């Protein structure tokens, strides 16, 4: 028997099959990611399919490829258009390919609104406690905790706004490090105050606070 048997090469996969398979895989991945971040799985699947599509697709094709209902396809694709995730070309749809643009659009339209809601709620709590009897230790404690929470929310809002507007990241981080070093929660009544507790500010915090220049005291988003 010859040791140089030549076996026929396996036929190459059909290009259409390869592309369709990759579209399905990316669609599933995007569906998982979307679901993880609190969006519907269908949103991620539609984006993944269109992102991997070599040509624009109409709604009927998207519906058929993903086996979703007409109502689901229509509602979801309308929402994705509003978010800037999809774009229309007549009756056809294409996906946005700038991932930074996608992320900032989501942050601007959804996360920023939630942060502002949190800030507004915290401000109401602080105002309510400031109007209460400050001679009561429990009121003072609650006020200090509420102010600490508000400071954290406002710091997060500043970072989010600066990130979305693409402000210089070094200035953002330095400003946040300095602000964070000042945010100390009120201790439980009867315990050491934050200022007098020698363990409250650890070596890393002291180093961070000392290394941040005063010019970053204020964050200009």
TrEMBL record:
Residues 1-20, 187-207 are annotated as: Disordered. GO terms for molecular function: DNA binding. The lineage of its organism: Bacteria, Pseudomonadati, Myxococcota, Polyangia, Nannocystales. It comes from the Bacteria. Keywords: DNA-binding, Transcription, Transcription regulation. Transmembrane segments: none annotated. This is HTH-type transcriptional regulator.
